[in-house]
């Protein structure tokens, strides 16, 4: 086995190559973190890894703008395992065809936790995901179609709930919480 293939197969994060949101290649770590054999995922739409069609489309829509602008995107998201349970992952993508970003993407998925941190609401997870990508409250609000004040309210509640002073401390606390 050549060293490139060995590195791909043994990487401690899930690695995926997709074309038009269909899985064309993935390493063993990606399949294992989601409870599948690698062969079972090849040729599948990413839709099987989300709880609903709406969530699948929403995730696409949130990341599409940054992929078109910078050809890279990252966030934190919940993925659905084969058994229906969820895993919270740090996600990164790089568009290989800049003019049509979803045509071919290389993605990585790193497990943060086997469950949402401290039972965050979907809105809280969205705000935390934006904070994790270094976005301001205004940028998060624009991305989610909310007012900046709404995002600030969510952020303030999270800071108070977790007893931290700023977004950096919040992200650190959430990343290392045990499920």
UniProtKB/TrEMBL annotation:
It holds the Pfam family GerE. One of its GO terms (biological process) is regulation of DNA-templated transcription. InterPro entries: PAS, PAS-like_dom_sf, Sig_transdc_resp-reg_C-effctor, Tscrpt_reg_LuxR_C, WH-like_DNA-bd_sf. Residues 113-178 form the HTH luxR-type domain. Keywords: DNA-binding, Transcription, Transcription regulation. It comes from the Bacteria. One of its GO terms (molecular function) is DNA binding. PROSITE patterns: HTH_LUXR_1, HTH_LUXR_2. The keyword Metal-binding does not apply. The keyword Transcription regulation applies. PANTHER family: DNA-BINDING TRANSCRIPTIONAL ACTIVATOR DEVR_DOSR (PTHR44688:SF16). This is PAS domain S-box-containing protein. It comes from Shimia aestuarii. The lineage of its organism: Bacteria, Pseudomonadati, Pseudomonadota, Alphaproteobacteria, Rhodobacterales.
């Amino acid at each position: 086995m050549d060293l490139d293939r060995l590195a791909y197969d043994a990487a401690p994060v899930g690695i995926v190559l997709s074309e038009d949101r269909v899985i064309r290649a993935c390493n063993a770590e990606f399949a294992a973190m989601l409870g599948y054999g690698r062969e079972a995922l090849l040729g599948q739409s990413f839709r099987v890894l989300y709880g609903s069609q709406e969530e699948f489309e929403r995730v696409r829509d949130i990341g599409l703008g940054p992929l078109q602008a910078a050809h890279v995107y990252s966030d934190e998201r919940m993925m659905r395992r084969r058994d229906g349970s969820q895993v919270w992952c740090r996600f990164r993508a790089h568009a290989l065809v800049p003019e049509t970003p979803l045509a071919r993407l290389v993605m990585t998925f790193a497990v943060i936790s086997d469950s949402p941190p401290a039972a965050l609401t979907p809105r809280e997870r969205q705000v935390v995901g934006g904070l994790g990508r270094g976005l301001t409250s205004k940028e998060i609000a624009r991305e989610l179609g909310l007012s900046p004040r709404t995002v600030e309210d969510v952020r303030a509640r999270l800071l108070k709930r977790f007893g931290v002073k700023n977004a950096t401390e919040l992200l650190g606390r959430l990343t290392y919480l045990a499920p």
